Amino acid sequence: MSRVNETALKKRAALCAYCGSCTACCPVQSVAADFGPRAVARCALFGLSAEATEASWLCAGCHKCDMACPQDVRPSEIIRDLRALSPETGRLHPVFSKQMELLIRQGRLYLVDEFENDGREDEGLPRLAEELPDVAVLLGGGEQA
Ligand code: SF4
Ligand code: SF4
């Protein structure tokens, strides 16, 4: 059963007057022009599209849109609910899918290899394990040692 009450979500999205105040103050908009809380709220209203669910992962969770909204739509909560729907829609922004892949494969987002460890040694720092299999186990992608 879905953890998201889609009817309640759509009800709140329906309050949107499409004024754009939320998108105008969204800090993510300046680096991802296609993203905007107004668009996400509208998508939520018109069918919870996979694209909206995917876009929801770009939100930085600053809640500025909630403060700017004159209609109490609370776009950040709609975005949070859309994220929660990701497992059902199978849509996770590609950036996060890639990060998950890296975490399962090497235990961290940043690759630590021989070159990196040689540099650490030169700086008097301890060597690091190149892989962290426990992280994969925690994420359900590896085998318990
Ligand atoms: S909570 Fe998300 S959508 Fe709202 S302004 Fe912040 S980054 Fe943008
Ligand atoms: S500020 Fe509120 S009413 Fe205006 S577009 Fe955003 S969600 Fe809709």
Order of helices and strands: HHHHHHHHHH
How many runs of DSSP E, i.e. beta strands? 0
What's the number of domains?
Answer: 2
Q: Remind me, CATH topology of the largest domain?
A: Fumarate Reductase Iron-sulfur Protein, Chain B, domain 2
Taken from the alpha-carbon principal axes, the silhouette is: elongated
Label the structural class: mainly alpha
| Tally of DSSP helical segments | 10
Radius of gyration: 20 Å
Integer average pLDDT: 83
Helix proportion: 40-55%
User: At the first level of CATH, what is the class of the largest domain?
Assistant: Mainly Alpha
CATH homologous superfamily of the largest domain? Alpha-helical ferredoxin
Low-confidence regions? none
CATH architecture of the largest domain: Orthogonal Bundle
List ligands, each type once.
Answer: iron/sulfur cluster
Beta-strand residue percentage: under 5%
Head-to-tail CA distance between termini: 33 Å
Quaternary organisation of the protein chains: single chain
Major sheet description? none
